[in-house]
Structure prediction request, 232 residues.
Amino acid sequence: MVNLPAFAAGGEPLGIVIQAQDAHLSNANAAIGATVYPGDALATERDGTLRLRVGTGQLYLAASSAASLTQNAKVTRVTVTSGTVGFVSVTSADIELQTPVALVRPANGQRAQGQVTVTGPNHMIVSAYNGALLVERNGEYRIVEAGKSYNVSFDPNATPSAQNPAGAGTQDQNQNGNGNGNGNGNGNDNGNGGGNRHDKGQLIFDTIVFGATAVGGILIWHKVTESSTSPD
Prediction:
């Protein structure tokens, strides 16, 4: 039997598989050259990997990961269910990652390489390898600068006053010229300084050192970028 992907939702194709090992596309084994459509589910097994070309960018699933693809206007949204998913995006209009915690996408309309790892229903790790990433939920956001990594959690019971003193991600946001500004780092540019976030919880950012996981991600993306210049 030839493993052909089932077209989950039809429509215009979103990408093409350029690397697959122990990976699945909807209800079939993923194969190099397979076309990915809106609604298709992506998954990798314990030792699996999956890489797609999506528009002008690339998407990568590490082992034991699951995600699905949809499209909003010209942006491909990748809903990350579990595991580790990374991307290379030429502009912020290419790819965005929707996790259970927050939305992650390139910041400032620039090229970026980044990765998220879902570690629990309200927890994830966000790493920016090249270019800055924007992490956003309910209008609250942080800029994660290149070379930085954060544990990000969502506390549905927190209030803005509880978040402000502990917001480790505030430093990244303040690099845009806002000074120390810890008291308003959650919403300087979006007018969100309390408002609806009283009833919707808070994102909590804790900076972490680029350790083995991040180094592994950097090596993965070096390989991805390098191999993208040669035939797949």
Observations:
- DSSP finds three helices and 15 strands in the chain.
- The domain at 69-227 is CATH 2.60.120 (Jelly Rolls).
- The radius of gyration is 18 Å.
- Residues 1-9, 161-199, 212-216, 227-232 have pLDDT under 50 and may be disordered.
